[in-house]
Amino acid sequence: MESLLMSIQPSLLRFLRTLVGASGADDALQETLFQLYRKLGQLSAPELFRPWAFRIARRVGLHQMKRESRWLDESSDAVDLDTLPTDEAPPSEESLQHLLDEAEISPASRVVLLLHFQEGLSLPEVAAALELPLGTVKSRLGYGLTLLRKRLTARGINA
User: Fold this and answer.
1) How wide is the angle at C-alpha 14 spanned by C-alphas 9 and 18, nearest 5°?
2) What fold characterizes domain 75-154?
3) Which of 44, 53, 69, 83 is the most buried (most CB within 10 A)?
């Protein structure tokens, strides 16, 4: 059990730092690991451990953000799914990190970008981890990638 939790700890910490900020990430990670330990018996499919762990981390992080009254309105994430390309090239690590550091991107889109590009989860796995419909995940991904392209274009970098 210890090696299982230690193997996912760095990914969860990166995820939680992006979601709740550096100051609250350690507390959220501790609570997440505790929840994983307590609920591991409820996991019916071991191959879904990573998405399941991120789902728990997301819940813990959102609960912490709500306690701190830091949640932003997600309504600005609406994007027409028909305008999204199907095959997106992943942004560079530097571009992704810069985008995630910007305050303009909503936490909802930030989480999708982080799980998909930094943690390598497929879009269906991201949808499972966040307990969202696949279309919503694609919409939030599209919103984040559009913002990334705008930022790169504004800086004179080919997106």
Assistant:
1) 140
2) Arc Repressor Mutant, subunit A (1.10.10)
3) 53
